[in-house]
Amino acid sequence: MVINTEGSFIDNGITINGAGSAKAQKNLATDRWWYISSPMSNATASAFPGLSSSFETGTRLFYWDEVTTHNYVNVTVGTDALPQLRGYSVKSFPLKSPGLPVNFIGSLNTGTVGSADNLTRTGTGSFAGYNLVGNPYPSAIDWGSENDTTLGLTKMNLEPTIW
To answer: What is the distance in angstroms between the CA of the first residue and the CA of the last residue of the chain?
Structure first.
């Protein structure tokens, strides 16, 4: 199964039978930074082609480490796992058209993802408790709804703002 850039997959409790993996494809415009997370339970950083640690070169992929470094960590190894709910900041250099092709391959996240204690909230300094949390599903979420409980969303200890 392939889910393209603007597509969403809502399983509504069904089970998908058969062998193989799903693929969620995104094409990110290269003229800006994107916040993104993996819709797969076992995806790796190889979803982002051309990972780089050099300033304004290749694909720059970062996540916020609230526990150890209290800073953004540059992901440069394609075999690194992309944990569920972890948000990433990504931009491709040089700017080019039509954009950065991102291909998440693996098992689609479904059902409940995360737990009441999977965010650390233990950092120190001005960003204590800051976590970049991403949408872990292969579909859009109406995060801004004032009545999220009717949608089945529970936002425990998270700010009501999304960027």
So the answer is: 29
Give, in order, the Cα–Cα distances in Å from 22 to each of 4, 10, 108: 11, 13, 7
H helix or E strand, kind and range, residue 86: none
Q: Which helix (H) or strand (E) holds 74?
A: strand 71-75
Burial status of residue 37 (CB atoms within 10 A of its CB: 0-12, 13-18, 19 or more): buried
Q: Long-range contacts made by residues 113-117, C-beta under 8 angstroms, separation at least 24? A: 113/84, 113/85, 113/137, 114/84, 114/85, 116/156
**Considering only CA atoms, which of 134, 82, 103 is closest in space to residue 23?**
103
Q: What is the pLDDT along the chain (163 residues), one digit of tens a residue?
A: 777 766 667 666 665 555 557 888 888 888 789 999 999 888 999 999 999 999 988 999 999 887 778 789 999 999 999 988 889 999 998 766 678 889 998 888 877 777 666 666 665 666 666 778 788 888 776 655 555 555 566 666 666 555 5
Let me know the angle formed at the C-alpha of 46 by 56 and 80, rounded to the nearest 5 degrees.
95
CA angle 146, 83, 33 (to 5 degrees): 65
